[in-house]
Amino acid sequence: MTTDSREVPMPLQHPASKEHFIPVYSNFIIGGIAGCCAKTTIAPLDRAKINFQTSEMYFNVKALFRFLRESYKFHGFFSLWRGNSATLTRIFPYAAVQYSVHERAKSVLGIHEMDLSHMSLSSVRIRRFVAGCCAGTSSVATTYPLDLARARMAVTQRVKYANLVDVLRSVYREEGIRSLYRGFAPALLGSIPYSGVAFFTFETLKEWRLSRTGFLNPSV
Prior knowledge:
By secondary structure, this protein is mostly helical. It has helices spanning 24-41, 43-53, 61-75, 84-108, 121-155, 164-175, 184-213. The longest helix is centred in the middle third of the chain and has 35 residues, at 121-155. The model is unreliable at 3-20 and 216-220 (pLDDT under 50). Solcar repeats lie at residues 22-108, 123-208. Belongs to the mitochondrial carrier (TC 2.A.29) family. It comes from Schistocephalus solidus.
């Protein structure tokens, strides 16, 4: 009787299985680029939204297109991206803090490993939600002044504020340092359920994807 001594090749492990070893700076770069692309794409709509929020204009689709058309006609094409530089400046630190804090929170809460079979399902879900909340509150707290500056640049004429630094300097000099965090409490309260649900959903669907296909990355 002849024994087949040929070695059976082992299946290659998908590189995504090492996802939790990705360094923070990689999340920073990838998240920053993605955030900048998304924000730049919708910048005209974001500027229109802020305009309707800070004026007495009644919003509808027709009024939206009228605002975009008149902005282009009287102020030029690039006026539709007024304040976008401040948005992009905020996105990079926001993403860096959000992703790094989220990964750290997962480690502290004991849910950074792929195999969580030793924990109850309810415990995993609660900790995922808490990790997301920590990420959201930290990123909002550290970048809120930049978001305030972005909003002001979007609704004011260029002659008033030259750039992001000028906005922060003017607000600090004329209104005090506390004004840089005006409206911070509602923003923080809103970020808690938003980030908690967002990261919880992502981690849960990622786990479901892994259990069904063996891939960690939902985009594969």
